[in-house]
Amino acid sequence: DIVMTQSPxxxxxxxxxxxxxxxxxxxxxxxxxxxxxxxAWYQQKPGQPPKLLIYxxxxxxxxxxxxxxxxxxxTDFTLxxxxxxxxxxxxxxxxxxxxxxxxxFGQGTKLEIK
Amino acid sequence: xVQLVESGGDLVQxxxxxxxxxxxxxxxxxxxxxxxxxxxxxxxxxxVSAISSDGGITQYANSVKGRFTISRDTSKNxxxxxxxxxxxxxxxxxxxxxxxxxxxxxxxxFDTWGQGTLVTVSS
Lengths: 114, 123
Prior knowledge:
The complex is a heterodimer. Chain A is about 0% helix and about 50% strand. By secondary structure, chain A is mainly β. Chain B is mainly beta. In chain B, about 0% of the residues lie in helices and about 55% in strands. Chain B has strands spanning about 5, 10, 20-25, 35-40, 45-50, 60, 70-75, 80-85, 90-100, 105-115, 115-120. Chain B starts with a strand and ends with a strand. The mean pLDDT of chain B is about 95. Chains A and B meet through strand 6, strand 7, strand 11 and strand 12 of A and strand 5 and strand 10 of B.
Protein backbone atom coordinates (compact mmCIF):
# COMPACT_ATOMS: atom_id res chain seq x y z
CA ASP A 1 0.00 0.00 0.00
CA ILE A 2 1.05 3.58 -0.58
CA VAL A 3 1.94 5.26 2.72
CA MET A 4 0.97 8.90 3.15
CA THR A 5 2.91 10.98 5.68
CA GLN A 6 1.84 14.48 6.68
CA SER A 7 3.86 17.17 8.39
CA PRO A 8 3.62 18.71 10.83
CA UNK A 9 1.28 16.74 13.08
CA UNK A 10 0.00 20.01 14.51
CA UNK A 11 0.31 23.65 13.60
CA UNK A 12 -0.62 26.94 15.24
CA UNK A 13 -0.99 30.00 13.02
CA UNK A 14 -2.16 33.54 13.72
CA UNK A 15 -5.39 34.79 12.17
CA UNK A 16 -4.74 36.26 8.75
CA UNK A 17 -1.43 34.45 8.36
CA UNK A 18 -0.53 31.66 5.97
CA UNK A 19 -0.83 28.00 6.97
CA UNK A 20 1.05 25.29 5.12
CA UNK A 21 0.55 21.55 5.49
CA UNK A 22 2.70 18.99 3.73
CA UNK A 23 1.93 15.48 2.50
CA UNK A 24 4.43 12.97 1.18
CA UNK A 25 3.56 9.70 -0.54
CA UNK A 26 5.78 6.61 -0.47
CA UNK A 27 5.53 6.36 -4.24
CA UNK A 28 4.47 8.66 -7.05
CA UNK A 29 0.74 9.27 -7.43
CA UNK A 30 1.17 10.96 -10.82
CA UNK A 31 -0.62 9.01 -13.52
CA UNK A 32 1.43 9.49 -16.67
CA UNK A 33 -1.39 8.82 -19.13
CA UNK A 34 -3.35 11.90 -18.08
CA UNK A 35 -0.66 13.84 -16.18
CA UNK A 36 -2.85 14.05 -13.09
CA UNK A 37 -1.85 13.59 -9.47
CA UNK A 38 -4.29 11.31 -7.68
CA UNK A 39 -4.26 13.24 -4.40
CA ALA A 40 -7.11 14.81 -2.42
CA TRP A 41 -7.33 17.00 0.68
CA TYR A 42 -10.06 17.00 3.32
CA GLN A 43 -11.00 19.19 6.25
CA GLN A 44 -12.60 17.72 9.37
CA LYS A 45 -14.03 19.92 12.09
CA PRO A 46 -14.83 18.49 15.54
CA GLY A 47 -17.93 16.31 15.56
CA GLN A 48 -18.33 16.51 11.78
CA PRO A 49 -17.52 14.20 8.88
CA PRO A 50 -14.63 15.10 6.60
CA LYS A 51 -15.27 17.61 3.83
CA LEU A 52 -13.60 17.45 0.45
CA LEU A 53 -11.48 20.52 -0.27
CA ILE A 54 -9.26 19.61 -3.21
CA TYR A 55 -8.83 16.79 -5.71
CA UNK A 56 -6.31 16.20 -8.51
CA UNK A 57 -3.88 17.80 -6.02
CA UNK A 58 -4.91 21.34 -6.98
CA UNK A 59 -8.57 21.46 -8.11
CA UNK A 60 -10.80 23.11 -5.54
CA UNK A 61 -14.14 21.46 -4.90
CA UNK A 62 -17.16 23.63 -5.72
CA UNK A 63 -17.86 26.09 -2.92
CA UNK A 64 -14.45 25.87 -1.24
CA UNK A 65 -13.03 29.35 -0.56
CA UNK A 66 -10.13 30.39 -2.77
CA UNK A 67 -7.88 30.92 0.23
CA UNK A 68 -7.42 27.13 0.09
CA UNK A 69 -4.99 25.93 -2.55
CA UNK A 70 -3.17 22.71 -3.31
CA UNK A 71 0.11 22.19 -5.06
CA UNK A 72 2.80 19.61 -5.70
CA UNK A 73 3.40 16.60 -7.88
CA UNK A 74 4.50 12.97 -7.81
CA THR A 75 5.34 12.41 -4.13
CA ASP A 76 5.31 15.84 -2.47
CA PHE A 77 2.22 17.93 -1.94
CA THR A 78 1.15 21.03 -0.03
CA LEU A 79 -2.13 22.45 1.19
CA UNK A 80 -1.95 26.19 1.75
CA UNK A 81 -4.45 28.43 3.48
CA UNK A 82 -3.44 31.91 2.39
CA UNK A 83 -5.08 33.89 5.20
CA UNK A 84 -6.24 31.84 8.17
CA UNK A 85 -9.78 32.39 9.37
CA UNK A 86 -11.20 31.23 12.69
CA UNK A 87 -13.49 28.76 10.93
CA UNK A 88 -10.47 26.99 9.42
CA UNK A 89 -9.58 25.39 12.74
CA UNK A 90 -9.79 21.68 11.93
CA UNK A 91 -7.82 18.55 11.20
CA UNK A 92 -6.67 18.22 7.60
CA UNK A 93 -6.04 14.94 5.78
CA UNK A 94 -4.47 14.06 2.47
CA UNK A 95 -5.57 10.92 0.61
CA UNK A 96 -4.17 9.10 -2.39
CA UNK A 97 -6.46 7.43 -4.90
CA UNK A 98 -3.75 6.35 -7.33
CA UNK A 99 -3.71 2.69 -6.44
CA UNK A 100 -6.92 0.66 -6.58
CA UNK A 101 -8.64 0.43 -3.21
CA UNK A 102 -7.79 0.27 -0.38
CA UNK A 103 -6.92 3.94 -0.67
CA UNK A 104 -4.83 5.53 2.06
CA PHE A 105 -4.94 8.68 4.15
CA GLY A 106 -2.28 10.69 5.88
CA GLN A 107 -2.35 10.68 9.68
CA GLY A 108 -3.83 14.17 9.81
CA THR A 109 -2.60 17.64 10.75
CA LYS A 110 -4.34 19.59 13.49
CA LEU A 111 -4.54 23.30 12.73
CA GLU A 112 -5.13 25.75 15.57
CA ILE A 113 -5.09 29.49 16.11
CA LYS A 114 -1.97 30.99 17.69
CA UNK B 1 -29.79 17.66 -2.02
CA VAL B 2 -27.22 14.89 -2.11
CA GLN B 3 -27.39 13.03 1.18
CA LEU B 4 -25.99 9.91 2.84
CA VAL B 5 -27.45 8.69 6.12
CA GLU B 6 -25.81 5.84 8.03
CA SER B 7 -27.52 3.65 10.59
CA GLY B 8 -27.02 0.39 12.44
CA GLY B 9 -24.22 1.31 14.79
CA ASP B 10 -24.52 -0.29 18.22
CA LEU B 11 -22.74 -1.82 21.17
CA VAL B 12 -21.63 -5.35 20.30
CA GLN B 13 -19.55 -7.94 22.12
CA UNK B 14 -16.17 -9.07 20.80
CA UNK B 15 -16.73 -11.79 18.24
CA UNK B 16 -20.17 -10.48 17.40
CA UNK B 17 -21.73 -9.25 14.16
CA UNK B 18 -23.42 -6.10 13.00
CA UNK B 19 -24.81 -4.70 9.74
CA UNK B 20 -24.47 -1.05 8.88
CA UNK B 21 -26.66 0.69 6.32
CA UNK B 22 -26.21 3.89 4.35
CA UNK B 23 -29.28 5.37 2.68
CA UNK B 24 -28.49 7.52 -0.35
CA UNK B 25 -30.69 10.25 -1.79
CA UNK B 26 -30.51 13.20 -4.14
CA UNK B 27 -28.43 11.47 -6.82
CA UNK B 28 -28.50 8.46 -9.14
CA UNK B 29 -27.14 5.79 -6.82
CA UNK B 30 -26.38 3.40 -9.67
CA UNK B 31 -23.87 5.81 -11.20
CA UNK B 32 -21.46 5.91 -8.29
CA UNK B 33 -18.95 3.65 -6.60
CA UNK B 34 -19.34 3.80 -2.84
CA UNK B 35 -17.02 3.43 0.11
CA UNK B 36 -16.80 2.89 3.85
CA UNK B 37 -14.23 4.79 5.91
CA UNK B 38 -13.87 4.54 9.68
CA UNK B 39 -12.41 6.65 12.45
CA UNK B 40 -11.51 5.25 15.85
CA UNK B 41 -12.09 7.61 18.79
CA UNK B 42 -9.54 10.42 18.70
CA UNK B 43 -7.74 8.89 15.71
CA UNK B 44 -7.39 9.51 11.99
CA UNK B 45 -9.29 8.21 8.99
CA UNK B 46 -8.92 4.58 7.94
CA UNK B 47 -10.17 3.26 4.62
CA VAL B 48 -12.34 0.15 4.98
CA SER B 49 -14.02 -0.99 1.77
CA ALA B 50 -15.23 -0.10 -1.71
CA ILE B 51 -17.91 -1.35 -4.09
CA SER B 52 -18.24 -0.50 -7.76
CA SER B 53 -21.29 1.21 -9.17
CA ASP B 54 -22.77 -2.07 -10.40
CA GLY B 55 -21.76 -4.02 -7.29
CA GLY B 56 -19.57 -6.36 -9.30
CA ILE B 57 -16.25 -5.35 -7.75
CA THR B 58 -15.54 -5.14 -4.04
CA GLN B 59 -12.31 -4.33 -2.24
CA TYR B 60 -11.23 -4.33 1.38
CA ALA B 61 -8.51 -3.13 3.68
CA ASN B 62 -6.34 -5.97 4.93
CA SER B 63 -7.53 -5.27 8.47
CA VAL B 64 -11.11 -6.28 7.62
CA LYS B 65 -10.68 -8.72 4.75
CA GLY B 66 -12.52 -11.98 5.39
CA ARG B 67 -14.56 -10.46 8.24
CA PHE B 68 -16.50 -7.62 6.53
CA THR B 69 -18.67 -7.71 3.41
CA ILE B 70 -19.77 -4.65 1.46
CA SER B 71 -22.89 -4.75 -0.68
CA ARG B 72 -25.50 -2.48 -2.22
CA ASP B 73 -29.21 -2.68 -3.03
CA THR B 74 -30.08 -0.58 -6.05
CA SER B 75 -33.82 -0.89 -5.47
CA LYS B 76 -33.42 0.67 -2.02
CA ASN B 77 -30.59 3.10 -2.84
CA UNK B 78 -28.76 1.65 0.12
CA UNK B 79 -25.17 0.63 0.84
CA UNK B 80 -24.38 -2.00 3.45
CA UNK B 81 -21.46 -3.21 5.49
CA UNK B 82 -21.85 -6.62 7.12
CA UNK B 83 -19.34 -6.87 9.94
CA UNK B 84 -18.35 -10.13 11.60
CA UNK B 85 -15.83 -11.42 14.15
CA UNK B 86 -15.71 -7.93 15.59
CA UNK B 87 -12.69 -6.92 17.65
CA UNK B 88 -11.92 -4.06 19.98
CA UNK B 89 -9.90 -2.34 17.26
CA UNK B 90 -12.97 -2.24 15.00
CA UNK B 91 -14.57 0.25 17.38
CA UNK B 92 -15.02 3.47 15.43
CA UNK B 93 -17.38 5.86 13.73
CA UNK B 94 -18.14 4.37 10.32
CA UNK B 95 -18.75 6.77 7.45
CA UNK B 96 -20.13 5.96 4.04
CA UNK B 97 -18.81 8.12 1.24
CA UNK B 98 -19.59 8.69 -2.41
CA UNK B 99 -16.89 8.38 -5.02
CA UNK B 100 -15.88 11.49 -6.93
CA UNK B 101 -17.02 11.13 -10.51
CA UNK B 102 -16.71 13.35 -13.57
CA UNK B 103 -18.59 12.70 -16.81
CA UNK B 104 -19.36 9.14 -15.87
CA UNK B 105 -15.87 8.20 -14.72
CA UNK B 106 -15.17 7.71 -11.02
CA UNK B 107 -11.72 8.28 -9.62
CA UNK B 108 -11.52 7.67 -5.89
CA UNK B 109 -11.83 10.90 -3.99
CA PHE B 110 -14.86 11.23 -1.73
CA ASP B 111 -17.12 14.15 -2.51
CA THR B 112 -19.98 13.38 -0.12
CA TRP B 113 -19.88 11.88 3.36
CA GLY B 114 -22.56 10.78 5.77
CA GLN B 115 -22.60 11.86 9.40
CA GLY B 116 -21.36 8.47 10.54
CA THR B 117 -22.60 5.72 12.83
CA LEU B 118 -20.77 4.58 15.96
CA VAL B 119 -19.80 0.95 16.47
CA THR B 120 -18.71 0.06 20.00
CA VAL B 121 -17.09 -3.31 20.63
CA SER B 122 -16.98 -4.20 24.30
CA SER B 123 -17.97 -6.94 26.69
